[in-house]
Automatic annotation (TrEMBL), chains A, B, C, D:
GO biological processes: amino acid biosynthetic process; aromatic amino acid family biosynthetic process; chorismate biosynthetic process
Top-level class of the enzyme under EC nomenclature: lyase
Protein name: Chorismate synthase
Entry GO MF terms: chorismate synthase activity; FMN binding
Pfam families membership: Chorismate_synt
Needed cofactors: FMNH2
Record text on subunit structure and interactions: Homotetramer.
HAMAP family assigned to the protein according to its UniProt record, in alphabetical order: Chorismate_synth
Length: 409, 409, 409, 409
């Protein structure tokens, strides 16, 4: 349904042509200094009309905080917020009243609810994600302030245009045809490791495509323009890194960190795939080369020399960088004619009018960051509760020392 | 935590060396005829010791139903069940008391809980999945009986040994280096479509690898044997198809069908990746070729000619086959020595003793099927509630007919 | 937290001096014709300033629907709604900045959150209930339209002024001092039974006190005026009846109908007590006189001749009228001086300025009705899912007929 | 359904004639030393056959821990436990196959599920509470060890036999007929205050009735014997006190402390009423006399001189003793003949055979304590999470000091 999270709980409402879209964020820690600007910055990164790579629908998407704060400080009570839909015109009659757009949500929403919004896909509208982005910005403010957690997403492919293999985990294994060749690239490549540990939003935003690699970004731009000019669309992938997450987050067995993260990511419109760490390609690597050896870090704690695990082992964070990749399909709404059928089954050709994004991945970047922040925040609050409860217990007397974490840790 | 689902709710307990593992299944429809054999068949497919490709740990894993049935009929009350751990010996002292196994859950469990099971990874043990498999078998019994729903998973790769590209969605796009070549294989290939629509568990089980393609299975067997002999391990992927699912399942915006499915799948031990339909590779295909055109089916309802969407659009099932793929990493526990560090940071070499699976994907097949069944069952119960509630309302008078689903549907 | 319900899910936000208060209602059945007027009528019954028995704070409390409807029909997606706070003046400095009001939420909110709203009690403000009342009105619209369910609450006592014993379940047992006297009034009294089965909101609203008994209402009015003039306050009770609820609602073992109902009622500000059916007084009656004998009703189904159970047996509705009573304490905020201590412990005297209700029960009536509607709606959706799922199963062959409900039922 | 709690989560299974009853307790803090004896003591207090006041059904009810511990220390993973049903005989044919017992769950279970257990009421059996009692004992162990929290319940009335008014909150207000007399007994009476602050389980268990007042207990015994001899039954009330609960527990607005507590209590079989603090009777007292004035306590923190609030204000605990009262109706199953109707509507007379409790309140005492412990534990874990999260934030700079809790608190 439209609520996500256990202790940090986000509930959203709104579709594209109603009065407003918004959210209620429940469980935000009290005493956090928070301004509308903290939220607006991510809404602005998400909003349409930012470049000629996105939809010309142009909305300012100004957030209006309704509750949960006084004097710019959170009270611990629910934060209500909304963004007006500037474009509330009743949806004009178009061919999409007769035709469900292929691969869009028009048909399935009608099947599910028996009625549909005049705009077709109802809550599958990208405007639904505004509430998520606002909620994520609030979580991020806390995570950064208290833990120094940094969440940065960027575009890693558009169509067939990928970051060079040196920068991408899916290319860890040589693509030869020798199934008995166990050679593995130095995992992760130094370039990719550097990218993960240093990339910033400022750097990402230097590129209209949000791909922080000049040559690749240029090719991506061309690829998107080509789709746009052909009244077509194209998909892509977004990679995201979360730095400085404490170890111990994730709730086995069903709410493992990556399970909850995948849930969050695949709830974003147009997503079809998720992988963490070495992902699909890593399944080709033998354990002896895929395992991340432990090593004592400078602070005395254990770290790993490699990080194929993507910061999560056994469903629980281990303190290393968490990185993952999400696949976004080509947008379903395209203006070129498509042979398909009407709701009543009559065959015909549909050419969807309107303003569409030829490629969603650049605008998906802040949405991915938001959902990542919400997941980390919620898992952190749950684990903090356990840790705090356990810390009050007297020392354990009956367990062998090898079964106990030294208190200094 | 250890509960999954809203109306069909599964809660599990147990680790590898305790008295038993088990589950409580709450919300099963009353009046379902159910025997222990219905459950045992999948537990037996999951249990260790089935072939020389799996761990020699040999347990019969006989289910003991505790409650929720009389005369072999479900009462609608919680079904308690358990499987005894035959091997409850206190864990022997081994090197893993000093060393966290690289990429295993030993370290993160200790970080999370401050204590750890003597066996190391606690609930990350594969035995934890017994409760899931039992719960899934109950869901399946209902789904098959009432809707004719069929769920079949099979192994689609081991290491670099993949099903031929004709049989696999990740190979939909030619792997040339021409980023401007929009050519696409006929999606999905006829071979893969046939495989999806006809594959049965009986066919899958003819192969020790559970890969229903003789040549590929033979290569996979060799690959697993090679890992075993090298005291190493290897990963792989499992593909699963769900047939005959009604349209309308999935709860936007956060509990979209694929989001919940991904959550379920990535909660299975050793999983690192999930994709539905055309998945990552599909992101390379332009919308004009990726969209699934609608067509009137023989029963008068709409279907799609292609099915790149994998049976889900806008987070809601559309009635087509649902297919998805999960990546399992190489098992972390290997017997060959690994350079790593002890819990206290001291560098050293660890050679894990014991009985390990060199490759988990053959035994993962029934676990994937079980989690799929649980997700479908829960989403079905939720959507049935909505449909039933809406069907009792008087006809809508104020909406344009194009916004309403004809009652005959 | 601020979300209630499983399938019909209400999330609220807002406190007394922020921009607005509101709610998101998720899970409303699609296809329901719903107008702002359907909601406004109950908000208006709840709003302050209705008579000289309530607070002079006068707000129109006009609801603004944000989403989830088109052309006055619900889409099945979340309904966002809000009511502006007309009085958003920053809270003036008063003595309550120094003093926590005795028995108010000032102190506990500060203890809980570490910060507090300038108004003191934060979300304990009565304005918080606006979102509940709106959500309840939506649920009621459905329940009435489809099931003919009627929910009517009324004031049954103010201070020591009670409805005559003939009208009230707490007086079922004679108040003599003979502990061995098992005599019981004819349960329920004909007058009370008639009241339960016929009372309407129109009738209730004829009385400023919302007590539909002229003599008692007059005494209550005097009692409230007396409290007001003494700058004091007084408590009371509200009785509520729900008619025409289908049998089978309630989810054992933890979410029994009355457990969920009690949860809902005791979440209303100022409540301290809840009883269903014969309640506390009924515990004094032996089983032989307290049990409700079954009888065949005109429609061929079973009913009960008495209804001490209050429509619920074993945590599940039995089709009879559901009636229950809630105790509201005297409002904590009074203007007469009170000897107490400041936040820092300094003793002193507090006389709270401002506009207060001397008695909350008249305005509590629509809030009680709203929470009752939300509970019934949610339980109905859950039970409908089960019933619909079970109805699709083939006939049971292995159970003795006495264990099966005939299909005709 | 059969799961209760958010972070400390209890799921139960089992009815009276199945193989076993049991529970899974998820979210127990790791590192707690826990033995079967810690649990057994409360199970033994709950079990039948303890005296001639209870059912002669005699079961030892020995708990078998299945998981979640090693060397007597909790691992933080789910604790599975079960108690065998010694009496698993298939239910003999009796008249109750034809007749639903009046006011029992037989009829409503059949209406709800369409099938029923041969024993009739299915999960409404008192054996269902075994899992709750076990779970509560685990929570209690933690609460006592870390916070010194003490939970003691006792019987406060049987039929018309009540603790003397000096010992009971319902008698706070003189029962005169003068509605304008605002006189109030010294609230709470010194005797009752002393009882609340000193009563122990050892003291309670000195009395077969579990009413710790010799004269009253003797009368209660006679009352129960009289019911037993008449093949009848009688109800009663249980009062419970929770001492040393930290301030700040309870989650407004829907999960206020008393709302969750009422939910828990009214989920216990046979309960019909709940009140906290001064309860129903307190509604008759004007605010000026009902408000609890603040005073600086010896430890420098604020306390209240009276405690009509029962330890909860605004839905949040204030650090004072929490006390509440629950009404249990007379057991529905009685052996004397009752005029009623068969399932098919045929009128007739039912005399239920078998072993029944003539009065449930003595055995209800440990069940009430268990549910109280579960509620406190869950709310504590949630509040600890918030407190821990807020404590890590930098000092607030923009709020007036009167809005902030000094850190020393």
């Amino acid at each position: 349904m439209s609520t996500f999270g256990t202790l940090f709980r986000v509930t959203t409402y709104g579709e594209s042509h109603c009065a407003s879209v918004g959210a209620i964020i429940d469980g935000c820690p009290p005493g956090l200094e928070l301004s509308p600007a903290d939220i607006q910055v991510q809404l602005t990164r998400r909003r349409p009309g930012q470049s000629n790579l996105t939809t010309p629908r142009n909305e300012k998407d100004l957030v209006q905080l309704q509750s949960g704060l006084e004097h710019g400080v959170t009270l611990g009570t629910p934060i209500g917020l909304l963004v007006k839909n500037e474009d509330q015109r009743p949806h004009d009659y178009t061919e999409t009243d007769l035709y469900p757009r292929p691969s869009h949500a028009d048909y399935t929403y009608l099947e599910k609810y028996g009625v549909k919004a005049s705009s077709g896909g109802g809550r599958s509208s990208a405007r639904e994600t505004i509430g998520r982005v606002a909620a994520g910005a609030i979580a991020e403010k806390y995570l950064k302030l208290v833990y120094g957690i940094e969440i940065v997403a960027f575009v890693s492919s558009v169509g067939k245009v990928h970051l060079p293999s040196s920068h991408a985990p899916p290319s860890l294994v040589p693509s030869d045809d020798n199934e008995d060749n166990d050679d593995v690239h130095d995992a992760l490549s130094p370039e990719f490791r550097t990218l993960l540990s240093t990339i910033t939003r400022e750097e990402v935003d230097k590129y209209m495509t949000r791909c922080p690699h000049p040559e690749t970004s240029e090719k991506m731009t061309k690829r998107i323009i080509r789709a746009k000019e052909a009244q077509d669309s194209i998909g892509g992938t977004v990679t995201c890194v979360i730095r400085n997450v404490p170890s111990g987050l994730g709730e086995p067995v069903f709410d493992k960190f990556e399970a909850t993260l995948a849930h969050a990511m695949l709830s974003i419109p147009a997503t079809k795939a998720f992988e963490i760490g070495s992902g699909f390609k890593g399944t080709e690597v033998p354990g002896s080369k895929h395992n991340d050896p432990f090593v004592r870090r400078e602070d005395g704690r254990l770290g790993t020399t490699t990080n194929w695990s993507g910061g999560v082992q056994g469903g629980i964070t281990n303190g290393e960088d968490i990185y993952f990749r999400i696949g976004f399909k080509s947008p379903a709404t395209i203006s070129q004619p498509q042979d398909t059928a009407q709701y009543n089954g009559t065959p015909g050709s549909l050419a969807a009018k309107g303003r569409h994004d030829p490629c969603v991945v650049p605008r998906a970047v802040p949405i991915v960051e938001a959902m990542a922040a919400i997941v980390v925040m919620d898992q952190l609050l749950i684990q903090n509760s356990r840790k705090s409860a356990a810390s009050l217990l007297p020392p354990i007397t009956t367990l062998p020392p090898t079964m106990i974490l030294p208190k200094s840790n």
